[in-house]
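Weekly structure sync, notes
Attendees: PL (lead), two postdocs, one rotation student
Agenda item 3: pending single-chain targets
PL asked that the sequence for the first pending target be pasted directly into the notes so everyone works from the same version. It is reproduced below exactly as submitted, 274 residues in total.
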Amino acid sequence: MRRPRLPAAVVAALAAVAVALAQEPAARPESPFLNVRKGNMPVIISAPHGGTGEIPGVPTRRGVGLPTGPNGFYTGRDPGTEELAATLAVEVFLKTGKRPYLVTARFSRRYVDANRPADVAYESPRAKPVYDAYHDTLAGFCKEVRKVHGRGLLLDVHNQATFPDSVVRGTQDGKTVALLRQRFGEKAHCGPDSLLGLLGGAGFKTHPAKLDGKEHDNFNGGYIVRTYSGDYGLDAVQLEFGWMLTTPVSAPETAGKVAAAIDQFHRLYLVDAK
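Predicted structure, written out during the meeting:
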């Protein structure tokens, strides 16, 4: 029986990933439960919900007595986001010659939810070091970007099924990009040259459909973007990709288009940082 061939776009994307990774510095050794790449540009990519790995000695979370809902207890995976984030980092490098910082979870959300405060994120004491490793790494990168570049952009990558072919922005209706708005005005958040506007220009359907519209209550920015904006001197945007955009076939094209938007955003708002 002949093995099915991978689509040409997937083969090309994998080849590009292999070449770029060979030129990147090795991942930090702090935790085997994370995929970490140090960058040299003021962009950080996070993906906390794409991992599938078990944590030895840690049972799955049960969530007894915890609230549910968008910011409460949930153990579902965001499929394809770990891979999308890694490919996106490579595509940004190929387009700009610079490397974004990268932090993604290899561990399953069933054991630790890195996009929640600690009291909701884990239940076993053995899970605490994994949670801390994610946030210590992310916090360290944010501080480094602030020190080296003066400002920066954190992108937190997720997956959703409500708008399966769309990219949904989450900024707490502009609160997590307050510094961007102060420096460049509202157009930098909700104009055609905003991140969402650039993504729309790249061919994505976007939500809010009106760039200055209210963000969806379920996807308007979680713990990570709320925590690492403002006091860390960065702007942070949660990007919720429809599941149709994160499949193995569609993800390479998605990553390429998003990388092009990041390149434009970087040139407009970050290239002269510090």
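Discussion points:
- The chain is about 35% helix and 15% strand.
- The chain has one domain: 8-270.
Action: rotation student to compare against the earlier draft before next sync.
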